[in-house]
Design a protein that fits this description.
Helices cover 23% and strands 25% of the residues. The protein is of the alpha/beta class. Helix 1 packs across helix 2.
Length: 190
Amino acid sequence: MLKVHEIFASIQGESSHAGWPCGFLRLSGCNLACRWCDTRHAGDSYAEMTVADAAAALAGLGLPLVEVTGGEPLLAPQTPELVSRLCDLDLTVLVETNGSFDIAVLDPRATAVVDVKCPGSGMEQRNDYGNLERLRPRDEVKFVLADRDDYDFALEIAAQIWRTHIVHFSPVAATLGPARLAAWMVADRV
């Protein structure tokens, strides 16, 4: 059984699909404790659902773009089956993962949005760096940045993949203003 925290429709706020209407299925639980986590509320609150029921509920929102997220969706051993069922329904499927689990378990028709944890998160040592080699052509990588040290860390890693994959830099609002991040990126011609 899947531990489903919530299923809802909204606008995609991250990834190359930002701005598109999207159905979200948020699973409960995470194996990390990032300093600026914005989904701690999903930790222990959930309803148990079968994979078939969860897929039907998400598809029932009637949106062609869906995302499986968390917490950490790859904590649930049923997530690969859920993702494949959604792909079988001809949906565009995103899986947003914290990057600490092997993404090779995901259906190649889905897009993994892999977070690489920067030092400011307090979770950098939990990255599965093998995921950078496992990226499929449609997969994307995200860095959440708290400060200049995180930015420099992200630049070093992104240099390995940004010619072949979409890379996102996302500032932590409380510590790094978007204008400051943009200024660094423009100065560095990123």
